[in-house]
């Protein structure tokens, strides 16, 4: 389910660290920015409502696969601190 808020977020080409993205997922901030309920957000990023609820309740840590799926679905680039660009 892609609404105007999701399209806007995708166009921003946001860059976040892994920690920032996990915080945005677990706090519900990212889902709220999308203007979606848990079910619609789960469908958008390819997981279940129960999984999103667990993340937002801090009952379970987001799985790496889900983190990458969320980043990909929303056009978020992950910045890896300390990673080299190969120019050295």
Describe this structure in words.
Helix content is 57%, strand content 7%. It is mostly helical and 88 residues long. Helix 4 crosses helix 5. The termini are far apart. The model has no long low-confidence stretch (mean pLDDT 89).
Topology (elements, then pairings):
Layout: H1 4-12, E1 15-17, H2 18-26, H3 29-34, H4 38-45, H5 49-56, H6 64-73, E2 77-79
Parallel strand pairs: 1-2
Helix pairs in contact: 4-5
H/E series: HEHHHHHE
Q: Largest sheet at a glance?
A: 2 strands, parallel
Unreliable stretches (pLDDT < 50, length at least 5) are: none
Total DSSP E strands: 2
Number of helices: 6
Quick structural summary:
The protein is mainly alpha-helical and 88 residues long.
What labels describe this entry?
6 helices, 2 strands, two-stranded parallel sheet, mainly alpha, 88 residues
């Amino acid at each position: 389910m892609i609404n105007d808020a999701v399209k806007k977020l995708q166009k921003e080409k946001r860059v976040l660290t892994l920690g920032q993205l996990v915080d945005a997922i677990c706090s519900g901030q990212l889902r709220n920015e999308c203007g979606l309920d848990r079910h619609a957000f789960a469908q958008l990023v390819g997981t279940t409502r129960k999984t999103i609820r667990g993340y937002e309740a801090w009952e379970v840590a987001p799985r790496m696969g889900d983190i990458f799926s969320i980043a990909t679905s929303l056009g978020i680039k992950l910045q890896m601190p300390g990673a080299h660009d190969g120019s050295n």
